[in-house]
3-methyl-2-oxobutanoate hydroxymethyltransferase
Amino acid sequence: MKKKGEKATWITAYDFPMASFAEQAGLDMILVGDSLGMVVLGYKGTVPVTMDDCISHCQAVRRGAPNTFVVGDMPFGSYQVSDEDAVVNACRFLKEADMDAIKLEGGRRVISKIKAISDAGIVVFGHIGLTPQSSGQQGGFKAQGRDVGSARELIVDAIQIQEAGARALLLEAVPPELTEFIAKKLSIPVYSIGAGLPCDGQLMICGDMLGMFQAFTPKFVKKYASVAEVITNAFKEYVDDVKNERFPEDKHVYHAKDSMEDFEKM
Ligand code: KIV
Ligand code: NA
């Protein structure tokens, strides 16, 4: 697709229904992001998410999207300790959840992990720019690479990620000018989340684009639906129906086949 100049479409999903909607809509890829910690588990960030959380959500997504390229996201703590640990945990995504690839955050400081996982025969996606797992060091969820010095750091990271064997790179919240430079410089596909148009495809978080995640909305999100409103209104209508005995109606019940007298004999 990169060679043909065809844009890849990529979205996050964390459960069976969302994955099946994504597959029906013809998305090219699904990411089971550790953003699941915020979008579906209600944590303030991604740091508390465990390997077991990720595996069980990856399994649900795979069941919902059996024919889509699905990337499993390695959670904080699952690849930082050692190369060996990184490979063991990366293998779990393939063996237990049938993932097509894994993604991990960071540039030069995780190069040995990218190489080790890649040498194990696993497709690795890199992820630099805003990296939520290390957002403490970045001073919060903030755009990255906006000055020449930090842009240069990210370019060096990108090149080394490719050289280490990664098969794709995700840029998060960096200027489109930098995205374009990196996408042209690298032979592997470069994808954007909040990194502008000039690259090989786009990723969005389903909870953001569907209007399900209410805590905050990053600048780079385009809202395509208001699902939180739809669901809340449906619940309110249900409450109102029950309180006022408008539900259930006759069509919602199983009438007895025998007369009431037969019941009374019991
Ligand atoms: O977990 C996730 O959804 C991600 C994206 C924010 C890039 O890693
Ligand atoms: Na993530």
User: Anything to note?
Assistant: The mean pLDDT is 97. Strands lie at 8-12, 29-32, 69-73, 101-103, 124-129, 168-172, 190-193, 201-204. Residues 128 and 134 are 11 Å apart (CA to CA). The longest strand covers residues 124-129.
